[in-house]
């Protein structure tokens, strides 16, 4: 039974935390997300070069430092603490995840570009009609010679305005909601026919509606087995969920810490409001949510290596727990900050907004409860 | 025990519905549909139309222009307004200040101020909270020192800062709680003062809320001269007025009719929004269960409010039980915004404020702004006396704890 971190993982955490403390305070973040681009490429460059963290989770044979999901967990929590918007999750966890699992020709080179900070990814999987069902796909990839032609509309593709590469799920066969017939493609964002409609998100990021108008891709673009890629997608999405849970831990900790700090110094009726029992109990309940979220994040990462059904069940359980924590801790952080919690000026509102979006990312609480029930309770035993 | 609507009530409902349909400004409807920010003129346009009909102040005594409606008629009127998605008449003048004036004010003050409030001519803001006085309102520090002017008249010199002042950027006048005796017990040194917002020394500074909107402000008062005739009631007895006003504020927040309309919209949206599998979100058992529970919660609130209204028509004013309406009303409003955000799925994330109109569709119309509304609605459990304070009030004033 071992929940400790290795020396390398501890160093990784400290390196990231230290950099963010110096370069990513709340005011710097606020200015960056207001800028035209909405992010800071120099931060990404620092991740790649000065800190050298982008390769931490990739195996050595792919040019990485030989770590794995735990390294992503450590990094993501620090990114959550600082509300970092730069696209570590879509690039390293998702883009890198697809490349590392599917190992298409050129994978090593492209992972090398990720590690060097030269390739940025966005994951185009959700569709307007699909809600959280990964297999609900209208976007189609029609076979054309050795390659495919892609047509469709992907919804709320986070980080697409910053990406050089898109990972696109599309149907090469089967009916709209069939598990069979699903494929995944690597598409250059600058490919002819890729049209984006960019916008900010409520939690400080940028996203796009991405339209594919007869986008031609060659055979090398296919990731994983043609028409049978749903298990690969589900695996990478589960890894993304685990990483998002880790990010949430950073956000939740800050929401709770900020609330403790505020209530200790805010005086009403002649006393710090932190001395009122009703609020103390609330902050304890928040604390319990935070701790359980951390526990389930660890559980999620431990279970990533399990067979698919076991893994999916564990990740759904974690996402439910984290989703509930995000709502309770987020809402109560605002409440306990009183009117100040409602301002744009204070950091707590921004943590709350991020927590709110995390709640729905890669599946809402209801979606994951249902997946959990299906995997855990609908079987014969 | 009777909840039947009489034929007269049915006729009134028909009249109310027709009046709104025929008179609600299309320009206003267009702006609401396009989610455009409303100007001062927009807000007042509906108020003025209602004032001409004599319907802008449903709860006022007929002597001052109230229509003399029964509680049932008032209830029907709320329903019809909500049903038609009209903008709400701002509560500050009509619902909060006016009862203080016609209860505690002099005849001269009633004649001077009530018509402007009723007719939508004067926009009023509420100068209560301060940076150091939120829940502990009585600790307020904005001071008003009495002096005789060069003209021989009596004035107060007001200095201090109010915060969370809703829509002060549009206000012509404000009602302010100020400290006129710094040596008395806090509640015994407060006066209720009406201040012309165009007075020299009044500065309004926007506060941007977390969803990006500008609806509240800081109001700085720097040597503002206010005639003593602008004080309502006795000097140092303003807390009596303040408490009466807070009761009205609190019971006005329940918002049953608007929440019913919100639920109806949620059902419509979740009939078109698709669930993970084939079929509408409303058919998904988990979502359906949550909507059912919310409807039941709202029904309970509605009947509690009807009991309160019935009590009021028997002569009782709003009492400490109005804290129940405030707590449950705001929790239900918040829950509605949670479910609307859930229903939007991925399209809850886009932030569309300020984007060019011709950018093209980004998600369905009903998803637009749902996250912003969810974030903004967190204020309802904080303002008007936080829900924690409301529980203290019930504990003390109702349960005797």
Low-confidence stretches of chain B: none
| Topology pattern of chain B, helix = H, strand = E | HHHHHHEEEEEEEEHHHHHH
Known CATH architecture of the largest domain in chain A: Up-down Bundle
Shape of chain B: globular
What oligomeric state do the depicted chains represent? heterodimer
- Low-confidence sequence ranges of chain A: none
> What about the largest sheet of chain B?
4 strands, mixed
Give the helix/strand class of chain A. alpha+beta
Mean of all residue-level pLDDT scores of chain A? 97
CATH architectural category of the largest domain in chain B? Up-down Bundle
Q: What's the total helix number of chain B?
A: 12
What is the CATH C-level name of the largest domain in chain A? Mainly Alpha
Query: In total, how many beta strands of chain B?
Result: 8
What secondary-structure arrangement, pairings included, does this model have?
The complex is a heterodimer of chains A (381) and B (401).
Chain A lengths: L6 H17 L2 H9 L6 H8 L20 H13 L6 H15 L4 H9 L5 E4 L15 E5 L2 E12 L6 E7 L10 E7 L5 E7 L5 E12 L4 E2 L6 H36 L1 E2 L2 E2 L4 H27 L4 H29 L10 H14 L4 H12 L5
Parallel strand pairs in A: 1-4
Antiparallel strand pairs in A: 2-3, 3-7, 4-5, 5-8, 6-7, 9-10
Helix pairs in contact in A: 1-4, 4-7, 5-6, 5-7, 7-8, 7-9, 7-10, 8-9, 9-10, 9-11
Chain B lengths: L6 H17 L2 H8 L6 H14 L17 H13 L7 H14 L2 H12 L5 E4 L15 E6 L5 E9 L10 E7 L10 E7 L5 E7 L5 E14 L3 E2 L5 H14 L4 H17 L12 H29 L8 H23 L25 H7 L10 H12 L3
Parallel strand pairs in B: 1-4
Antiparallel strand pairs in B: 2-3, 3-7, 4-5, 5-8, 6-7
Helix pairs in contact in B: 1-4, 4-8, 5-6, 5-7, 8-9, 8-10, 9-10, 10-11, 10-12
């Amino acid at each position: 039974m071992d929940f400790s971190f290795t020396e390398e993982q501890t160093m990784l955490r400290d390196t990231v935390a230290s950099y963010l403390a110096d370069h990513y305070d709340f005011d710097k973040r606020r200015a960056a997300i207001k800028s035209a681009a909405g992010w800071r490429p120099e931060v990404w460059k620092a991740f790649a070069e000065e800190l050298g963290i982008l390769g931490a989770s990739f195996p050595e044979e792919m040019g990485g430092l030989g770590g794995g999901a735990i390294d992503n967990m450590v990094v993501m929590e620090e990114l959550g603490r600082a509300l970092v918007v730069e696209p570590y999750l879509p690039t390293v966890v998702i883009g890198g995840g697809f490349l590392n699992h599917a190992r298409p020709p050129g994978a090593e080179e492209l992972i090398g570009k990720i590690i060097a900070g030269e390739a940025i990814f966005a994951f185009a999987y959700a569709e307007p009609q699909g809600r959280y069902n990964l297999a609900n796909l209208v976007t189609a990839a029609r076979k054309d010679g050795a390659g495919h032609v892609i047509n469709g509309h992907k919804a709320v593709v986070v980080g697409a305005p910053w990406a050089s590469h898109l990972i696109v799920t599309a149907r090469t066969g089967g009916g709209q909601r069939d598990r069979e017939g699903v494929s995944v493609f690597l598409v250059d964002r600058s490919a002819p026919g890729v049209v984006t409609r960019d916008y900010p998100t409520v939690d400080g990021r940028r996203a796009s509606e991405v339209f594919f108008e007869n986008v031609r891709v060659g055979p090398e673009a296919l990731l994983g087995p043609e028409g049978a890629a749903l298990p690969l997608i589900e695996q990478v999405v589960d890894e993304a969920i685990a990483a998002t849970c880790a990010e949430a831990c950073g956000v939740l900790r800050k929401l709770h810490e900020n609330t403790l700090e505020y209530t200790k110094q805010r005086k009403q009726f002649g006393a710090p409001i932190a001395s009122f029992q009703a609020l103390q109990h609330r902050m304890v309940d928040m604390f319990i949510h935070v701790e359980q979220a951390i526990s389930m994040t660890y559980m999620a990462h431990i279970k990533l290596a399990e067979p698919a059904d076991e893994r999916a069940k564990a990740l759904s359980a974690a996402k439910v727990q984290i989703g509930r924590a995000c709502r309770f801790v987020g809402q109560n952080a605002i409440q306990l900050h009183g009117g100040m919690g409602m301002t744009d000026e204070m950091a707590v509102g921004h943590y709350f907004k991020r927590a709110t979006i995390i709640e729905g990312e890669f599946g809402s609480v209801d979606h994951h409860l249902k997946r959990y029930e299906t995997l855990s309770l609908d079987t014969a035993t | 025990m009777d909840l039947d609507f009489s034929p007269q009530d049915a006729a009134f409902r028909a009249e109310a519905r027709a009046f709104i349909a025929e008179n609600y400004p299309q320009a206003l409807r267009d702006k609401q549909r396009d989610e455009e920010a409303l100007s001062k003129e927009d807000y007042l346009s509906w108020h003025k139309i209602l004032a001409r009909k004599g319907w802008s102040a449903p709860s006022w005594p007929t002597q001052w222009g109230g229509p003399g409606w029964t509680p049932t008629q008032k209830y029907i009127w709320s329903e019809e307004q909500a049903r038609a998605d009209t903008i709400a008449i701002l509560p500050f003048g009509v619902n909060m200040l006016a009862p203080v004036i016609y209860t505690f004010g002099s005849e001269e003050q009633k004649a001077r101020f009530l018509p402007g409030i009723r007719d939508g001519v004067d926009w009023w803001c509420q100068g209560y909270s301060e940076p150091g006085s939120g829940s502990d309102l009585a600790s307020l520090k904005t001071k008003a020192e009495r002096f005789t002017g060069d003209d021989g008249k009596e004035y107060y010199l007001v200095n201090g800062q109010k915060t969370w002042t809703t829509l002060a950027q549009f206000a012509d006048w404000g009602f302010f709680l100020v400290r006129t005796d710094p040596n008395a017990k806090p509640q015994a040194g407060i006066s209720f003062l009406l201040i012309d917002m165009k007075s020299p020394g009044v500065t309004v500074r926007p506060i941007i809320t977390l969803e990006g909107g500008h609806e509240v402000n800081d109001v700085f008062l720097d040597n503002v001269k206010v005639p003593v005739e602008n004080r309502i009631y006795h000097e140092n007895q303003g807390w009596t007025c303040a408490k009466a006003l807070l009761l009205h504020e609190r019971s006005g927040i329940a918002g049953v009719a608007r929440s019913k309309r919100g639920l109806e919209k949620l059902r419509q949206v979740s009939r078109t929004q698709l669930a993970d599998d084939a079929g509408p979100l409303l058919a998904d058992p988990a979502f359906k269960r949550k909507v059912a529970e919310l409807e039941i919660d709202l029904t309970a609130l509605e009947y509690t409010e009807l009991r309160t209204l019935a009590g009021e028509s028997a002569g009782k004013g709003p009492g400490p039980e109005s804290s129940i309406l405030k707590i449950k009303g705001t929790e239900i409003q918040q829950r509605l915004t949670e479910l609307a955000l859930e229903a939007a799925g991925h399209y809850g994330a886009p932030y569309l404020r300020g984007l060019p109109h011709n950018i093209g569709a980004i998600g369905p119309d009903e998803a637009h702004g749902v996250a912003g509304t969810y974030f903004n609605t967190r204020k309802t459990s904080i303002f008007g006396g936080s829900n924690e304070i409301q529980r203290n009030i019930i504990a003390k004033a109702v349960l005797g704890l």
